[in-house]
Amino acid sequence: MAPRAIWSGAISFGLVNVPVKLYSATRSLDVRFNQLHAADGARIRQKRVCALDGVEVAAEEIVKGYEISPDRYVTISQAELDSVQAKATRQIEIEEFVELAEIDPLHFESSYYLVPEKLAVKSYAILHRAMSDTSRVAIGRVVLRSKEYLAAIRPLGETLTMATMRFADEIVGRDQLAGLPDAATEVSERELVIARQLVESLSAPFTPERYRDTYREAVLAMIERKADGEVVVSAPENAAPAKAVDLMAALEASLAAAKARKAPIAVEA
């Protein structure tokens, strides 16, 4: 089934507009379950109930409230929210071009493909090639579903991609984390040498297809077996207590195992 565009608009930079359509570049393959009544297998229906009197509340009687202190709320109507929401301009307004290496992956959120409208193929190609030649990423703003996002546009093959981004104040500062190592943490040169060799031994080109969601595959296989009438029983696991590990010995053993895994297998003539 061919993907469907979820948004259409234009990339705007300077006085140039490039009409494009937006497609999701990712999809969720999570195994989703419904809640059922164990006694009869019927679906569970969620009800909205007032915490004060226990009475079910109709949707038209529910308002939005923001808690400003314990049990104290400011109520906001949809009309009030509409008055301050971002204006849907149908434009991805580019503000500047930066180097990709300057953007920490922590800022990236959701990924999309940008496809040109039929009459915009040439302008799309010019923008794509200019960004490729200069190794730059476009940073701009876009409104999706009434919310304004920071966005990064970059070439990927012959396609322009867009990633929505988190704003700076949405990133938790590392200075708020306790227990991180500092310059005073002692590391021996021998330990560091072995660790570097281990990293080199395990280094390889990134091939996404090599990695599979083994948990999801196992759940789907189990569901299929149960649907066929098989009784699935899990064996209890006895968690062994964690043992103290000698760091140097662990590094050396890991390096030996990595080298053995990459060693060519002798074939008898």
Short description:
With 269 residues, the chain is of the alpha+beta class. It is 24% helix and 26% strand.
Question: What does the model show?
Answer:
- With 269 residues, the protein is α+β, with helices and mostly antiparallel strands.
- The chain has a domain at 7-27 and 86-169: Ku70, Chain: A, Domain 2 (Beta Barrel).
- 24% of the residues lie in helices and 26% in strands.
- The chain contains 5 helices and 9 strands.
- The strands form 2 sheets. It has a 7-stranded mixed β-barrel with strand order 1-2-6-9-8-7-5. The protein has a two-stranded antiparallel ribbon with strand order 3-4.
Describe the secondary-structure layout.
Elements: E1 7-13, E2 16-24, E3 64-69, E4 72-76, H1 78-84, E5 91-98, E6 108-116, H2 121-134, E7 137-144, E8 147-156, E9 159-165, H3 189-201, H4 214-227, H5 247-262
Parallel strand pairs: 1-5
Antiparallel strand pairs: 1-2, 2-6, 3-4, 5-7, 6-9, 7-8, 8-9
Summed over residues and divided by their number, the pLDDT gives a mean of 88
Spatial strand order of the main sheet: 1-2-6-9-8-7-5
- Output the helix-strand order: EEEEHEEHEEEHHH
CATH class of the domain at 7-27 and 86-169: Mainly Beta
**Under the CATH scheme, which architecture of the domain at 7-27 and 86-169 would be assigned?**
Beta Barrel
Provide the gyration radius in Å.
Answer: 27 Å
